[in-house]
Amino acid sequence: MREKLESLKREAEEKIRAASDPEGLKELRVKYLGKKGEITSVLRGMKDLSPEERPVVGALANEVRNRLEEWIRAKESELEEARLQARLKRETVDVTLPGQPRPLGGVHPLNAVIEQIEDIFVGMGFEVAEGPEVETDYYNFEALNLPKDHPARDMQDSFYITPELLLRTQTSPVQVRSMQSKEGKVPVKIICPGKVYRRDDDDATHSHQFTQVEGLVVDRGIAMSELHGTLLAFAEQMFGEKLESRLRPSYFPFTEPSVEMDISCVQCGGSGCRMCKYSGWIEILGAGMVHPRVLERGGYDSERYTGFAFGMGPERIALLKYGIDDIRQFYTNDLRFLRQFQSV
Amino acid sequence: MLVSYQWLNQYVDLNGVTPEKLAEELTRGGIEVDVIHPLDQGVENVVTGVVKKVEPHPGADRLRVCTVDAGKEEPLNIVCGAPNVAEGQTVAVALPGARLPGGVKIKKTKLRGVPSEGMICSAQELGMPEKLLPKEQQEGILVLPAETGVGEDAKAVLGLEDVVLELDLTPNRSDCLSMWGVAYEVAALLDREVHLPVTEERMPVGKTKPVDVVLDAEEDCPFYATQVVEGIRLGESPRWMQNRLLAAGIRPINNVVDITNYVMLEYGQPLHAFDYDQVEDGEIVVRRGGTGETVTTLDGVTRACDDRTLLITDGTKPIGIAGVMGGENSEVKEGTTTVLIESAYFAPESIRRTARRLGLRSEASTRFEKGVDPERVIPALTRAVELMVQLAGGKVASPVTAERMGEIEDVIVELRHNRLTGVLGVQVEEKAVLDVFRRLRFPTEVNDGVYRVQVPSRRPDISIEVDLIEEVARLYGYDRIPTTLPWGQQSPGALTPEQRLRRVIRHSLRDAGFHEVINYSLTSPDRLRELEPVLYKEARPIRISMPMSDERKVLRTSLVPQLLETAEYNVHRREEGVSVFELARVFVTEEKKLTRQPEERWALAGLVTGATSPHWQKRNGAPDFFTVKGMLEWLFERLGVNGISFEAAQPEGYHPGRTARIKQDGRVIGVLGQVHPKTASAHDLDDTYVFELDLEPVTEAALNRVIRYETLPKHPDTTRDLALVVDEGIPVGELEKTIHSAGGELLQSVSLFDVFTGEQIGEGKKSVAFSLRYQAGDRTLTDEEVAEVHQNVIQRLEEKHGAVLRK
Ligand SMILES: [Zn+2]
């Protein structure tokens, strides 16, 4: 019996070593170690042995069983590992192939610019106000010191709907509306972004519809130096660098003194280039101290309060920031154009 | 306003101030110089000469061979093609080696075999503005006055050694519509003296042609002055005057008209000359027109008056429209020997209204509209009369006859020093302020920190304190105003919740792969009609009263129609897939004729067409109804908007089987659907899905959502699947509603996981499978409890929808 066990052990060792897949190995386990397996059948013959031999053979049989068990387990993990390796090999991909694209959208560059303007002014304590796009002649013109026969009305031919209603030509009507809704409380610190409309033929530099951002600050003791400081702080955040600025006198019926603000050219830094027409300066907005008559119309005593107002064009800022050369691009909605601002 | 540098130099010494520097100073002072035009565009070696002989060219019918004395030792032989060349003319000759504008070089050459030693120039060839030249000069050579010398530099003779500054005047600075005004401004900016010509020379005044002036419309014309000059010899005005007119952009006509224009440029006071012989009885009556009355103006057009048209009449007939254009019947023309010169102050509103109504804008009306200086009415008249005597051989035939209502009052404006420094935010010294007023030539006194400033009538833009603050600021220098930040009571800045939400929506759609677009608010009614409205069905698109084009006629009531255009545009540019959205206002009114502001409602619309993103692994399927519906549901969930349902709808322009009204708690808030294939193909689009939402209820629901912590469930849930066969036409949404109501509190969620039709189900039937999750917050549900509720669900489905349970 001893020989039989030994030869069983040898035979099994060989077969286990030769096993090439887990299924074969499973069969071997059943064949040798199963309830009806060969070791069991050898053990079954134990009853014919002498009582002295029994424990010896029993121990041997146990040892063989343990060895076989051990070999099978070792082989199992070997085969498992081989299978895993094969799988990993099989699963190898060309990592340079393109990834599954996620559709990428984008906000419109004009709105992206407006959001940046809003964020900068909100950071400086401004609220964002809104007003109607179909405006009354009163708020659009008269309340802003532009009576019906005022020559400055020529500057902006308008889309009238009725003699009293028109598409607003500027976001400035929100000035008086905001003051009125504040009912005399200070400080008034608002900006108002929005669409405006003028009777212009659409070309590279004109659009019958465009956007503006109006701003208004009213409080006690507001001076022009604060207008200058606030707008320079804005420009530096907008264009992300240290800038020079200058004020030039200008004219708006609803502010006085009125100014236009230039900043050092964001492209050449002031040395002169095509963008700044070799002047080193770029005009970015119009502004001024709120005209006393406008303050009064808004319900503020112009002796006690002063204020400044400004207006800027997001189109112009986007043109400057991104080097866009045709204002119509903003309204054509060509995806090839819009995609260029996906990451804004 | 076009300003000649040389002319200005006569009034203000510009020594050391180049045109560029002058432009810079003006611009920094608030008068923007748009362009600097050098009149000399590189002309060199062009001299005056006299045509001695003109002979035919042996080889060409249209060419002539001229002998020209240009002051050289030998006369020059020049071949000339101009039809107007004639013997005895004084002309401009480009000598061999001469340069003309545009880099043209003149050489000795042969033209059809005949040698030509230079060129006789046209005005255009010398760079003079074509549109201002008389017709014969546009077509032929420039003929100079006979008294011009020979061999002189043509540039000097033609005033080309000058530079013109083009001023872009703001409406308040009408004072700079005259050379005098510009001179005052420049003198103030540079702090230099002003030297204006004075007309104090006493001319002999005759009384042979008296005039009577009657003002019948004082409000429109409070001041009218006139004087008559006789013995006029009509002809060309002198070259120097023509040169100045040309530099100012005004076409020379004849000496009388040129003088009126010249004086207008000097003083800013428009003048008009009438042929005195056409003025009956020497009477001028200024009155308003009558309806039905007509005037034929100088340009030969007969114009209808209304009762607010201000007319100049001779008591019998109109002879001109005041301030706008003279009448043809009284025009100064060949044969005129006596002229009546008008110098007046017309009310700006009156002129503005008439000029606008007639569509006639002239140099004169522009000035009257802005208000001329009443103090210059008489001086300008006197100046013109003087020039007519000097340059047109006239004799004064009447005294100045003036009618004037009211007196011109001195304008005194006070300025408080502390107000000035308060508004500017800079400590200006009193001395500096006084210096500004001295430079402006505003007589000023100061007392106790208050300046009393006498504002001359030439500056009608200054009438209140802040006007003076501006004057001080701009002359003191804006660059001396420091930069500070507002101090005092601070305010927390913020977007409103609505504004923030609109951003979240836009950013969410961006992240879902949509591109944001901006279309015009104005569109065409036809475009709006392409898709039947689901929202604002009663809205009437608002019409613009004078649209610029058919495409931009009405305010949009929906954003979707233009998205179709956007998609079409991009598909035509080879875009495979288009996913776009717009968030904007639509304009809603039910009024036929607008009497009040319409409602402006925020709307959100989107469009999806074509494959979204093709990939090498598999082509992404084109989107379908459920792609877009899923995106919307995702958005609603993102915003926390509940109670949304979709209900089949068949609006026109949409696919009748793939369109839904979107409802929120029973109220229609939007539409989602496939664009009807016919409509889509009209735009060259394949399957196209669109949606539009009224943002107001969405915003309201989103802002009212309550976010409150709930303890996590402690007891396990139980899931039961449910497969039913129902009639194909029953919407799954209805089944879900029934399940929810039958499932009661214990039913936590229902999810559909299978829908199919097929033979094994039967004709006209479909199989629908749901997974139902039951759970209670306070206990673990027993099998019996779940079975009871689930059975109830099944029973209700059977009763209500005839559903049959699939086993
Ligand atoms: Zn530059």
From TrEMBL, chain A:
Catalytic activity: tRNA(Phe) + L-phenylalanine + ATP = L-phenylalanyl-tRNA(Phe) + AMP + diphosphate + H(+)
Any Gene Ontology biological process: phenylalanyl-tRNA aminoacylation
Enzyme type, top EC level: ligase
Region (Disordered): 1-20
Main location class: cytoplasm
Keywords: Aminoacyl-tRNA synthetase, ATP-binding, Coiled coil, Cytoplasm, Ligase, Magnesium, Metal-binding, Nucleotide-binding, Protein biosynthesis
All residue ranges annotated as the Aminoacyl-transfer RNA synthetases class-II family profile domain in the record: 111-340
Protein name: Phenylalanine--tRNA ligase alpha subunit
HAMAP family: Phe_tRNA_synth_alpha1
Gene Ontology cellular component annotations, sorted alphabetically: cytoplasm
NCBIfam families named in the record: pheS
Molecular function (Gene Ontology), one example: catalytic activity, acting on a protein
Binding of Mg(2+), residues: E256
Secreted listed as a keyword: no
Family: Belongs to the class-II aminoacyl-tRNA synthetase family. Phe-tRNA synthetase alpha subunit type 1 subfamily.
UniProt remark on cofactor binding: Binds 2 magnesium ions per tetramer.
Automatic annotation (TrEMBL), chain B:
UniProt-annotated binding residues for Mg(2+): D461, D467, E470, E471
Domain B5 as annotated: residue spans: 408-483
Domain TRNA-binding: 40-155
Annotated cofactor note: Binds 2 magnesium ions per tetramer.
Top EC class of this enzyme: ligase
Keywords annotated in UniProt: Aminoacyl-tRNA synthetase, ATP-binding, Cytoplasm, Ligase, Magnesium, Metal-binding, Nucleotide-binding, Protein biosynthesis, RNA-binding, tRNA-binding
Domain FDX-ACB, chain residue ranges per copy: 713-806
Enzyme Commission number(s): 6.1.1.20
HAMAP family found in the cross-reference section: Phe_tRNA_synth_beta1
Name under which the protein is recorded: Phenylalanine--tRNA ligase beta subunit
Organism: Melghirimyces profundicolus
Gene this chain is encoded by: pheT
